[in-house]
Amino acid sequence: MDGMHYEGFIIRPPSEADSILLQVTLGCSHNRCTFCGSYKDKPFAIKDDAVIDADIDYAAKNLQFLRRVFLIDGDALILPQKKLVRILSQIREKMPWVQRVGTYAGARAILGKTEEELAALRDLGLGIIYFGLESGDAQVLQDIGKQQSPERMIEAGRKVRAAGMKLSTMVILGLAGRERSLEHARATGKALSAIDPNYAGVLTLMIHPGTSLEQQVNSGRFELLTSREMLEELREMLVHTHMTRGIFIANHASNYLPLRVKMPADKDKAISMLDTALRGETALKPEWMRGL
Hints:
By secondary structure, this protein is an alpha/beta fold.
């Protein structure tokens, strides 16, 4: 064997750049979000134990210099508990030097696990979950095809925290278009406050070819925000985000203005920085430099 078994386009959070990427599912079990083109190339499937075992063996032999593992694709937590326990146990047994395992997870997957099941996964090394909240606004969640209410999203985020795992909650600027921009910002700040994650990761909407959102943009049904309007939305979101600790991060390649805000200590300073940018006194990242 000359490497890991990967199928299709592989995605991971920026903070997992130096992690062993272990593909345990193909695609995303939901795969209906209007803005997401990440998994259109592959229907959801669970990978065979034999393939996963072979990849763990390969990583154990060849990737001993990496200290973290990230389970891909889009929603590995949706796996049956028994299979997840088996995977995490294999990682612990064959790669005892691994300090943390992480995964993406949707609300349905999180809420489908009992508190005891999540605690068992934590005890086996699952240390961080990356959760796509996207928006705290009910209308926006409906429009983008999330099929979850803000209340259910908040419940899912809080459940991860209660299980003793780190939580990185992702939200997207511009996702409401122009019409509900500030409502989206306020409701998302309110949801982040209720969840109180370790990390709030703020991305800026980018339109992916072949998505239903691209069709809405092309037909004029969805109005994209200007870079200034994105900053206004970010400011409004931050004003309404009352995290008791953790970091509010807008440093993804998609963002116009990189921010890393230690909450709550640096919040006022960050708002002042946004005000400076809105007055035109700070250079924004040019369009050609933005990307995934």
